[in-house]
Design brief:
The complex is a heterodimer. Chain A is mainly α. Chain A folds into two domains: about 210 residues; about 120 residues, Fumarate Reductase Iron-sulfur Protein, Chain B, domain 2, CATH 1.10.1060. Helix content of chain A is about 65%, strand content about 0%. Chain A has 19 helices and no strands. In chain A, helix 1 packs parallel to helix 8, helix 2 runs antiparallel to helix 9 and helix 14 crosses helix 18. The radius of gyration of chain A is 28 Å and the shape is elongated. The N and C termini of chain A lie far apart (about 95 Å). Chain B is of the alpha/beta class. Chain B folds into two domains: about 120 residues, Rossmann fold (3-Layer(aba) Sandwich), CATH 3.40.50.1860; about 120 residues, 3-Layer(aba) Sandwich (Rossmann fold). In chain B, the strands form two sheets. Chain B has a four-stranded parallel sheet. Chain B is globular, with a radius of gyration of 18 Å. The chains are: A mainly alpha, B alpha/beta. The interface between A and B is large, with 68 and 72 residues.
Chain lengths: ~450, ~260
């Protein structure tokens, strides 16, 4: 085992361990949320995951982005085969370990990866230009400045470097292979691109280029692994559990608050004796009505936030956002994730009772945003990975109304009308059937 | 016009009769002058087809939808449980609503509070009446006209009902044109989530104006709706563009009642 194998193993183990540490950190943040039972309807959940995450069925609503994304997605999946070989080669010091075992199949697989990598390269350029030159509106909204904008570009730069490394590696190796008298590898692109670009170079130069390509490839992959947990690109992992645990009920069915049900039943039951209710458990923290901060949300809401890749389909379909209101469903998800990161870090450092005097509602999301929602479900429908910003918005409203009695004045009037007249307008309940006798 | 026959549940019970379906009118359908016309159109269709139905009348109460969407879960559940007591008292099994908001709430949100009913929207009932041959229209005044249908969020995306309203409109022998954003991608009229009862937050446009623009881009003679709130928002939008003399905003029930000469 040479020095390069040892360096390789250190890099591999180091970045994998760092990644695992970060995944544990994020899982801890997700678990800060309230319990929510989503263990029902397993068959339906698997089906949803296979269709929506694996099959990307909801991406097709925007065909151009769907095809470009598909190039990168499929290239990413198939490149894993080459990656396994690189890891074997890196640890054992072999060269193209699979080649002799797979024969013709190997040529086919590497050819496929080359073609897909080329398509991914086209997609990368297209995506970079959509973000930076064409300035597609959903990529230039106010929440997409600073880090989120850079984050979106970094991954595309990495993708670009990765593809260049693959072709440098295969192209120079092709020329070497021929010069050593073994003939061509016969890979789809490098068999003609290699001689065209690298033909006539010194053997030492070719060896160096091949190593630069090989190391470049694996180092970019490992850097990506370390970077991923800090980036919006986590969707490549969380999209699967997120779609599995997504809401299966009709979109119009909002959650029922059981804590409220018990109280309402007591109020409506003429035989109920309020003093007969069991004494409250002194140690139990009463659950807040609605959500003010991360711990009031469910773990599914927080998983949603970590799954969001900030594509902005939700925001571009949101009627409030389209007409210039401050609400952006994407920003809601980004705020939940940023706040979960903040509160999670605080809790790991200072214990579970950590308070920093800040909260999701107020410091991250304003009341104006919360009240601009029409609950139309366009954002939920638009999300390619079944994120539900509406459930969070509704829980924030519940907190404002039920804990702080804060709402637009007209809604307070509406509530009073419903309480007194059983209708949102000020009409007498006795007049409900008057329409029958009006001409 | 023949007189409307609108028995209440109480009247039916005292006569020892049992309706096959309860017509849940809703607050807009009961009190709003424009929406009352939709209510009457639904009744005309029910009367014409000999559907044995009843309304709750003064015993009906807000479904609680706007309270729930506005974050007031207490008020919603109070309303829901009172309504469930009334509905269960009359042993109601099947309900048709004239409003997608009542439809969604009664259908989806009452079950967890103990109220289980088979709830349909009025466009679904009209579709059933056509399919069973009880209802027939000749297209009438809509024949050859251009109609565009605005999907109510609480019928479409919320409950995946896209075909019933369209299949009913097909019967009018008219040209059905779709807006750019339709079905699952349909744009909200701006009234959902209790927005009907408040001013919109600051922005650069009203949502109903955005939607009306899109509807008018199809150059329709009629904008068809299936929700009293959408109807108000689209009517206001059309007025905003001074098009009220060229473009009508009508509920599907009104169009069918007119075409069938009821």
């Amino acid at each position: 085992m040479g020095i390069s194998n040892i360096i390789f193993i250190i890099v591999l183990v180091g970045s994998t361990a760092f990644f695992a540490h970060n995944v544990r950190r994020i899982l801890h943040n997700i678990r800060l949320g309230r319990d929510e039972n989503r263990s029902d309807q397993k068959a339906e959940r698997w089906k949803t995951m296979i269709m929506v995450a694996l099959g990307q069925s909801k991406m097709t609503a925007r065909p151009i982005a769907a095809i470009l994304h598909l190039f990168i997605y499929v290239a990413f999946i198939f490149t894993q085969i080459e990656l396994i070989e690189i890891i074997v080669d890196g640890v054992a010091g072999t060269h193209r370990f699979f080649a002799p075992y797979l024969g013709g199949l190997y040529t086919f697989v590497i050819s496929l990866i080359e073609v897909l990598s080329f398509l991914a390269l086209i997609a990368t350029f297209a995506f970079l230009s959509r973000r930076n030159l064409l300035k597609i509106p959903r990529f230039t909204k106010s929440e997409m400045t600073g880090w989120p904008k850079l984050d979106g570009n970094i991954i595309l730069y990495l993708e670009f470097v990765l593809v260049i490394c693959i072709f440098t590696m295969n192209g120079s190796d092709e020329v070497l292979h021929i010069s050593e008298g073994h003939g061509s590898y016969g890979f789809a692109i490098s068999s003609w691109m290699g001689p065209a670009v690298f033909g006539g170079m010194e053997v030492e130069t070719l060896h160096l280029l091949e190593r630069i390509g090989w190391w470049g490839h694996i180092l970019v992959v490992m850097a990506f692994l370390c970077y991923l947990p800090y980036s919006k690109h986590l969707h490549i992992i969380w999209a699967f559990p997120n779609t599995y645990y997504s809401k299966l009920r009709p979109k119009g069915q909002f959650t029922n608050m059981e804590s409220v049900t018990n109280e309402v039943k007591l109020m409506l039951d003429p035989n109920a004796d309020p003093f007969a209710a069991p004494a409250p458990d002194a140690d139990a923290t009463p659950q807040r009505f609605g959500a003010k901060d991360i711990k009031d949300l469910t773990w599914v809401n927080i998983l949603n936030a970590y799954t969001c890749t900030e594509c902005g389909r939700c925001t571009s379909e949101c009627p409030a956002n389209i007409t210039g209101k401050k609400l952006s469903p994407r920003k809601i998800m980004m705020d939940v994730r940023d706040r979960a990161e903040e509160i999670g870090a605080g809790i790991r450092k200072n214990g579970i009772d950590f308070e920093d005097g800040k909260s999701l509602l107020g410091d991250y999301i304003t009341e104006e945003e919360v009240w601009a929602c029409t609950s139309c479900n366009a954002c939920v429908q638009a999300c390619p990975v079944n994120i539900d910003p509406l459930e969070i918005i509704m829980d924030l409203r519940r907190y404002l109304v039920m804990e702080e009695s804060k709402m637009p004045a007209e809604l307070a009037v509406m509530n009073t009308n419903i309480e007194n007249n059983q209708a949102p307008w000020q009409f007498s309940p006795a007049d409900r059937l008057n329409w029958r006798d009006e001409a | 016009m023949s007189e409307l026959k609108v028995p209440t549940m109480a009247e039916m019970m005292s006569a020892g009769e049992n309706p096959e379906i309860l017509f849940w009118v809703g607050c807009a359908g009961s009190f709003d002058d424009r929406a009352k016309k939709i209510t009457k159109a639904i009744v005309k269709i029910l009367n014409n087809c000999g559907v044995k139905f009843a309304v709750l009348g003064a015993e009906e109460s807000c479904s609680g939808d706007p309270a729930k969407r506005a974050g007031n879960e207490f008020l919603f559940q109070m309303q829901a449980m009172m309504n469930i007591q009334v509905l269960d008292g009359y042993e109601v099994k099947k309900i048709v609503t004239g409003c997608p908001h009542c439809f969604n709430t009664l259908k989806n949100e009452y079950s967890e509070l103990g109220g289980n009913y088979d709830v349909i929207h009025h466009t679904q009932l009209i579709q059933d009446l056509f399919e069973s041959g009880k209802l027939k229209v000749e297209g009438g005044q809509f024949k050859g006209k251009k109609i565009t249908f605005h999907d109510p969020c609480y019928l479409g995306r919320a409950n995946d009902v896209y075909e019933a309203p369209r299949s009913v409109l097909q019967k009018l022998d008219a040209e059905l044109v779709e807006m750019k954003r339709c079905r699952a991608k349909g744009l909200c009229c701006g009234a959902g989530g209790a927005q009907m009862f408040k001013e919109a937050e600051k922005g650069d446009k009203e949502i109903n104006i955005e939607r009306t623009e899109e509807a008018l881009a199809t150059s329709p003679t009629t904008i068809a709706t299936g929700c009293p709130f959408c109807n108000t928002m689209m009517t206001d939008g059309v007025k905003n563009f001074n098009k009220e003399n060229d473009v009508e905003v009508l509920d599907i029930a009104e169009m069918i009642a007119t075409a069938a000469d009821l």
